[in-house]
Amino acid sequence: MSAEAAPKSGAQWSIEADGHRAVVTEVGGTLRAYSVEGVDLLDGFGTDEIAPGSAGQILAPWPNRIRDGRYVFEGVEYQLALTEPSRHNAIHGLVNWSSWRLGDQSAGSVTLEYSLPPQVGYPWSLLLRTRWLVSADGLRCDQEVVNTSESNAPWGYSVHPYLRLPGVPVEETVLQVPAKSRVMADNRLLPLGAVKVAGSEFDYAEPRRIGNQVLDTTFGDIDFDADGITAVTLADPNSDRRIVVWADEKFRYWQVYSGDTLHGERFRRSVAVEPMTCPPDAFRTGRDLVVLEPGQTWTTSWGIRA
């Protein structure tokens, strides 16, 4: 007699409060679902489904891509596995397909943990803790990482939620991104440089429809409010419905992706709004790269309001 197969996304942890409900999974510590008063705002995936297009995943210890998977840190060269072989890149870090464990849980919050072991290409050990919380204020994620190794470690962080307003197609969705520049990318989606967005087709400083614009774009020079918060808004042009993704001052970039390279029913069905602490290829360029000292604890927060 064989044991019953576990769901492809592993164990499931559900949290609920004030009409807000979220589900996070063992595989990747992933945000699989988020709804408000029964209305899905996250374009998630099924329990027994492999996360499509990195939906809801945590991207660490680097977000986005590293050219050829090769970088030099503090005078030593490292080679990562090429996890995006079609573009010869290392993509989205090392924790998004790993098994996370339960730290603690209450009705409205859950904390998951993962110990990243030293490995070829990234010979540092890290302890990651992610606390997910739902309340009348929305969904909040508090991320903590501790460098448990004996030398400095490079670090970058992002998350990959896909969001949609029910009944509003991507073309009609009104987008606002508080950014003054964007990163130009080559055909491998690696950075070539930065240009100002003012007056261009990538200027979303003021809210406007996405229309036919294809977005897989890193926005920089972002604005923060008096409390050190930056936010991207998706809105319904025909009502006051909005989804706001907010992030604290540790995040210096927004990645916005309109799903044009996804297949089947997920093609341009939702918009990924990804706060990033550093731009693509930061392990190579060093731009806004965090260096974690031995024993150092680093924290950040982001969330979703509807």
Describe what this molecule looks like in 3D.
With 306 residues, this protein is mainly beta. The protein has one domain (12-305): Distorted Sandwich (Beta-galactosidase, Chain A, domain 5), CATH 2.70.98. Helix content is 1%, strand content 44%. It is built from one helix and 27 strands. The chain has one helix at residues 282-285, and strands spanning 12-17, 20-25, 31-36, 39-40, 58-59, 65-67, 70-73, 76-79, 89-91, 101-105, 109-116, 126-135, 138-147, 153-155, 158-159, 162-163, 174-176, 179-185, 191-196, 208-209, 216-222, 230-235, 242-247, 253-257, 271-276, 290-292, 297-305. Strands 10-11-12-13-27-23-22-17-20 form a nine-stranded antiparallel beta sheet, with no helix packed on it. A six-stranded antiparallel beta sheet has the order 16-25-24-21-18-19, with no helix packed on it. The termini are far apart. The relative contact order is 0.17. The mean pLDDT is 97.
- Record the strand order, biggest sheet: 10-11-12-13-27-23-22-17-20
Helix run count = 1
Q: How many structural domains does the protein architecture include? A: 1
**Helix-and-strand structural type:** mainly beta
Low-confidence stretches: none
Share of helix, binned: under 10%
Report how far apart the termini are: 47 Å
Per CATH, the class reads Mainly Beta
Strand content: 35-45%
Radius of gyration: 19 Å
Question: What profile does the largest beta sheet have?
Answer: 9 strands, antiparallel
Oligomeric form: single chain
User: How many β-strand runs?
Assistant: 27
Instruction: Kindly report the average pLDDT value.
Output: 97
Order of helices and strands: EEEEEEEEEEEEEEEEEEEEEEEEEHEE
Gross CATH architecture: Distorted Sandwich
The shape is globular
CATH fold type: Beta-galactosidase, Chain A, domain 5
